[in-house]
Amino acid sequence: MNNLTNSELTLDESLKFILETIDHGKIIYTSKTITKLNKCLKTIQNNPKLKVYSEYNKLKSRCSLMTVFNYLNFIISDNIMTCHMDSLPLSIDKKFDFFKLPPVSKPEEFLESSDDYEKHEQLFQLQSDVLSLISGYINEEASSYNQITTTVIEKLVIIFHELTLSSLLSSLTCAQYYQSSYKNDIYTIIQKLLHITYTLVPTSKLWICLINIANDICYDDLRHIKLFIELFQDQIDRDNSILSNELVRGGLQYFIETFKPNHQWFEDYKQDETNQELNAGNFKFLYSKSIE
Q1: CB contact burial 13-41 (16+ within 10 A = b; e otherwise)
Q2: For residue 81, which of 30, 86, 134, 171 is within the disulfide window of CB 3.0 to 4.6 Å?
Q3: Hey, where are the domains in the chain?
Q4: Where is 198: in which H helix or E strand?
Q5: Alpha carbon 221 to chain centroid, angstroms
Q6: Helical spans, DSSP H, in 64-179
Q7: Average of per-residue pLDDT across 78-93
Q8: pTM confidence score
Q9: Is residue 51 a contact partner of residue 149, using CB atoms and an 8 Å limit?
């Protein structure tokens, strides 16, 4: 590929470079790589979605466009955590294992001999652009599943949500090192994801998907309990009607009884008198692995 870092990129060139980038998996980005990726993302943002999909389909990638955005976002998160001598939760890391490829030759943008440039702000700006694309393309990806009427639709939807949530949660893990408004932006995208309407998959199952991931992450690393309590509380504050669903309410209750007993986050929720109090133990089989 020609060195296009200092010139405008076409849509085709932008998509190809992003695919080339993710082929290298978890690799430390140089300032030159970040600059070029930023131009690629801006090019995509400045083109109509129909044209983006048309150009992307010509490349015959094995991954959907949203999957590419999710994986790129995950790699950026890994770069941010590396800058802070930290690491992403192991269970998030494992979600993206299937992308791993044998080592391939690196393009010129990856071959800087030294990279002393302060990348912190660059990486967060780059991730912000990817998150914007994820938010912008979620509904298009989701709508494709409503066109499928086979018995595997639920499994496909859950796989899509697990991957997207894992990508978004990788960003949320990084948010501790950035401005508080950054966390709120991620909360908004997660809310959008949880409120997608599917013909054959109820909203409660999307929430259970999130709760399962939270359980797995917190089992592995208790540092993240506060992160998920704040996330769940934010989502409840945005729409507490979800607590009227027994599966979701039971799942949240199980999470809190497991990781922070006696935490009160249902106190402002007025439960219908006809509803009985839930026992979290009755729902454990729906959620993550049991503690051995």
Answers
A1: bbbbbbeebbebbebebbbbbbbbbebbb
A2: 86
A3: 1-106+116-195, 202-292
A4: none
A5: 18
A6: 65-83, 90-95, 120-145, 153-174
A7: 93
A8: 0.86
A9: no
